[in-house]
Specification:
21% helix, Rossmann fold, 4 strands, alpha+beta, two-stranded parallel ribbon, 22% strand
Length: 119
């Protein structure tokens, strides 16, 4: 999830409740008191904490089996946060950008001889 704010926080809660096994959160911001009325994943005790970490804690409270990968940075072309993991992949990766409120479709093409990227 790109952004754990107003829309992203809701989507993360629903995905955790739906049983999605692994989720990534890309967010560099901290929780502010002004966020609480619309970013429902956070509470008073989260003020001043990193949004990604607070969201992870709330998600694991909903579903203790969800694996959350945290990225405390802005998504940029140069930081290559979206990479292939595991087996050779072909197709498209659908990414919902909660900052822009739109889907991005990223083509995935990896050479079969290329080593897997593992975290």
């Amino acid at each position: 999830m790109i952004g754990a704010g107003g829309l992203g926080s809701r989507v993360l809660m629903y995905l955790a409740a739906a049983g999605v096994g692994t989720l990534g959160i890309i967010d560099f911001d901290v929780v502010d008191e002004s966020n609480l009325q619309r970013q429902i994943i956070y509470g008073q005790s989260d003020i001043g904490c990193l949004k990604a970490e607070s969201a992870r804690d709330a998600m694991t409270g909903i579903n203790p089996y969800v694996v959350v990968q945290l990225h405390h940075e802005r998504l940029e072309v140069v930081n290559k946060l979206i990479t292939g993991i595991g087996e050779t992949m072909l197709g498209r990766l659908a990414v919902y950008d909660a900052l822009e409120m739109s889907y991005r479709f990223i083509p995935l093409r990896r050479a079969p001889v290329r080593a897997a990227v593992m975290h």
